[in-house]
Amino acid sequence: MPLFPQSVEELTDHFAKLPGIGRKGAVRLVFHLLEQEACDVRAFADAMVAAREKTVFCRECQNISDEPVCPICRDPERDGSLLCVVAEPRDVAAVERCREYNGRYHILHGVISPTRRKSPDDIRLKELLKRVERGGFQEVILATNPDTDGDTTALYIARLLRPFGAKVTRLAYGLPMGGHVEYADELTILRALDGRREV
Prior knowledge:
Low-confidence stretches: none
Number of strands: 7
Strand content: 5-15%
CATH architecture of the largest domain: 3-Layer(aba) Sandwich
Shape: elongated
Number of helices: 8
Distance between the termini: 58 Å
Radius of gyration: 20 Å
CATH topology of the largest domain: Dna Topoisomerase Vi A Subunit, Chain: A, domain 2
């Protein structure tokens, strides 16, 4: 027998599907919303729908954007000879926080992972190869996470990029093994960028 009304149970189920939110956390979130003014809850719901409907992928770097080309790709002050390849859009924010990297980005939207059944066809590799093939990049920095899947992806990409002549580097292991770029502090990312090496 359900403890709460069906609408509350359904909302709890939806919150519980979010990463890092268990059943108890979902119940807390639902009850927090129930205590808010109706207009605030409506604004929250509208913001979620708008984010989902208005967000597109930048046609250049594959980052999330509300325009066909994201602000980073439109910025003429960025160094067009450097390309930093990351797994997820939130990794861009992590690298940007160190305020030392001023090049372009390419977001893969995942990594190669046999255990999760993610193959090279499941990530944005074709788009990356087309960008590098067009030329202009002197260095491609592979900034995937320093774990098994991140290393596998970096080595695979490095092999694909060799014929294009750009220098291919990997972030140094200033990042802990098994760690994630998005959670690293600015100093760790800065040291990893400074200590990158050719793959």
